[in-house]
Amino acid sequence: MRVEQDYITLFHQAESLINENTSEILNSRRAQALANFKEQGFPTRKDERYLYTDIAPLFEPNYGLNIRRLQIPVNPYKVFRCDVPNLTTSLYFMHNDSFYHHAQPSLPDGVLFGSLNELSAQYPELVNKFYGRLADTSKDGIAALNTLFAQDGLLCYIPHGVRIEKPIQLVKILRADVDLMVNRRLLIVLEDNTEASLLMCDHTMDDVNFLSTQVIEVFVGKGATLRLYGLEETSERSTRLSQLYIRQEAGSTVQCSDLTLHNGTTRNTSDISLAGKGATLSLSGMAIADKRQQIDNYTFVEHAAPDCTSEELYKYVLDDEAVGAFAGKVLVRPDAQRTSSRQTNRNLCATRQARAYSQPQLEIYADDVKCSHGATTGQLDENALFYMKTRGIAEREARLLLMSAFVNEVIDNISLEALRDRLHLLVDKRFRGELARCKGCSC
Amino acid sequence: MKTILEIKDLHASVNGKEILKGINLTMNEGEVHAVMGPNGSGKSTLSSVLVGNPAFEVTKGSVLFYGKDLLALSPEERSHEGLFLSFQYPVEIPGVSMVNFMRTAVNEQRKYRGLSALTAAEFLKLMREKRAVVELDNKLANRSVNEGFSGGEKKRNEIFQMAMLEPRLSILDETDSGLDIDALRIVADGVNKLKTPQTSCIVITHYQRLLDYIKPDVVHVLYKGRIVKTAGAELALELEQRGYDWIKEEVGG
Fold it and tell me: Helix-strand-coil percent breakdown of chain A, rounded to 5?
């Protein structure tokens, strides 16, 4: 608990400063988070959810924290040009955990989209109803630490019946002159019968070490539809620990995709509860990792109500000495009759040194269910490679086509066509090594 | 007459087992050669070795293709030099569209020959023209390579690729197997349409049927890894009537 003690001490030293700069709602959850963090510390590999990533050592190095909320004097429009052709989005930026205020595309009346810190001060009752209600700090040390230090992030609130056609894009940029730790908090609430598409892009701007924890809590009301896409293009010097919690009410639809194009060390947790009858979930992930990059996705899908459907697809391409892990658990509660659930994990190891770990888990307490899972790890198909060579396609190009084809299955799940096209292009660039280090998407 | 292929004393093995035990074969430009023979005689091994399948090891002998040492070239270079194999079992490549596959193949070939890549419009026009040669449905062209194609569609797709790449020497490895009469005619017509005085063809088959459509100049019989008999087109007819036993007896097998 030595590393944990450092953070506990830091919190005690900085508590008044943190609270001074943060809204009451965010502060109100810290005491509980502190107690929980003291009790359990960081998750260890003895925890079946964390078999493949040793968390505590990631927190050992010294990182700065922007507790005093110093402003970052950067205009993101000037440094960041990520134009997705034919994809018009309502574009917003976030520096580290701070919402960039100067971007104000118009969203329908009643929609709140902005700084969590500010909006939670303006709408305390609303935020209080949702904030910290899904991310249980007693069950996860990273969520506890994040809750302990969180000072800002995003609130996205879509009131009853509002359907937003145009996708919203949030570009989250990590930037600092010194090694930095960021604890970001996102709260997304879709009331009943709403619809929205949200694309979140994670980037790093500077050549320093970043450690980011991120807790995303998502409430999807009855009959609501949410498309949530996450795209990570960070540097090899970044560590990302992202915890996504989603609660789906009856008849809701969620399509969620986590795409790791370039990273350092990434651990994504997706904890999703199908809480209402007839909810539908499509959860997918894709990662392309090489050198010594690491990607670990853990998913937990809870079927708590009848007639829900969940479909999971995770695919990795691992080159050099990259390590990829996927562990997914599906829990079907006794009442969740007529559950349909399918989980698939496929990995491609391009070298003998690359490692893929896969652990599917099913726990079923209802008797009328249809559940399946499958996991495979393999190499590129030698027959296909040879076939392509006899048509004049050289080894490198042939491998590239096969690797792109492999991950395209995940991308093709995405329902925004322009984003799909863009991702095909980015994947191709990535495999060609033209995305080796993303500098704020100079593409 | 220009010699385009000269195989001399070719030996090849797979997993240490010798399959080809000294093949000698010479082809002139524009000729069609049929290679026949009982199962397991080494016909498919010969085609695999010629296109450079790494599963086969050449232990002895030489192959000259338009004067070049074919065995020293990589499979993709052999293709660029104008060698093509229509696979007996075409490979399915899920996720790679026919369009993407062919565009890459055609442009790699053009690069090798010092030509600029085709524009999207030029390429699609070429696809359309060549598709007509084997009556390949546009729907198939938009699908993943061979994925979900019927047996006949796969074979047609092979000839379509041949049309796109315009090889100087095509090897058709049992292109007739698994085809019904109509599909056989379409495939054979396709091959004949592509035939010019400068292009040559090796037809590997068990049956006279395909040779009714694609007329061979020379027929070879391959048996136990060697060519044991070479004659004109009439040999194929004789084999159809008499089977292989008399040849086995002749060579004392």
Answer: 25, 40, 35
Whole-number Cα distances in Å, B114 to B44, B80, B108, B109: 33, 11, 10, 9
Which pLDDT belongs to residue A440?
41
Nearest chain A alpha carbon to B145: A384
- Hey, what are B98's tokens? 């026919």
Q: pLDDT tens digits, residue range B102-131?
A: 999 999 999 999 999 999 999 999 999 999
What is the torsional sign of CA A342, A345, B149, B104? positive
pLDDT in tens, A130-150: 999 999 999 999 999 999 999
Crossing angle (nearest 10°) for helices A2-20 and A141-149: 30
CB atoms closer than 10 angstroms to residue A161: 14
Each residue's pLDDT expressed in tens, for chain A with a length of 443 residues = 789 999 999 999 999 999 999 999 999 999 999 999 999 999 999 999 999 999 999 999 999 999 888 877 777 776 665 555 557 888 899 999 998 877 677 899 999 999 999 999 999 999 999 999 999 999 999 999 999 999 999 999 999 999 999 999 999 999 999 999 999 999 999 999 999 999 999 999 889 999 999 999 999 999 999 999 999 999 999 999 999 999 999 999 999 999 999 999 999 999 999 999 999 999 999 999 999 999 999 999 999 999 999 999 999 999 999 999 999 999 999 999 999 999 999 999 988 999 999 999 999 999 999 999 999 999 999 999 999 999 999 999 999 999 999 998 899 889 888 888 888 888 888 888 776 444 444 33
A362: containing domain: 71-137+148-431
Token pair recorded at residue A40: 């359990």
**Lookup result for tokens 């940029």:** A173
Calculate helix-pair angle for A417-431, A395-411, nearest 10 degrees. Answer: 150
> Number of folded domains in chain A?
1
Calculate ∠ Cα A197-A200-A205, nearest 5°.
160
Residue A199 falls inside a structural domain = yes
- Which residue is associated with the tokens 């079907």? A332
Task: Give burial (CB, 10 Å; 0-12/13-18/19+) of A119.
Answer: buried
Q: For residue A357, what is the enclosing H or E element?
A: strand A355-364
Taking the C-alpha atoms of residue B227 and residue B49, their distance in angstroms, rounded to an integer, is 15
A383 is a domain residue:
yes
**CB-based contact, A397 to chain B, within 8 Å:** yes
Min Cα–Cα distance to chain A from B102, Å: 8
Token pair, residue A185, equals 């908090």
Its sign, for the CA torsion A38, A43, A45, A48, is positive
- Nearest-by-CA chain B residue for A406: B95
Q: Could you state, in order of their start, the residue ranges of all structural domains in chain B?
A: 3-43+53-250
Name the DSSP class of A225: E
For A192, the 3-state DSSP assignment is: coil
**How far is C-alpha A143 from the chain's CA centre?**
14
Assess A432–B contact: CB distance below 8 Å, yes or no: no
Residue A270, both tokens: 């997706």
Q: Which of B108, B115, B143 to mutate to test the interface with A (most CBs of A within 10 A)?
A: B108
Binary contact (A392, B108; C-beta < 8 A): yes
**B76 chain-A contacts, CB cut-off 8 A:** 389-390, 392-395
| Residue B113, both tokens | 């020959």
> Nearest-CA residue of chain A relative to B110?
A392
- Residue A14 maps to a domain: no
CATH topology of domain B3-43+53-250: Rossmann fold (3.40.50)
Q: Is residue A231 part of a domain?
A: yes
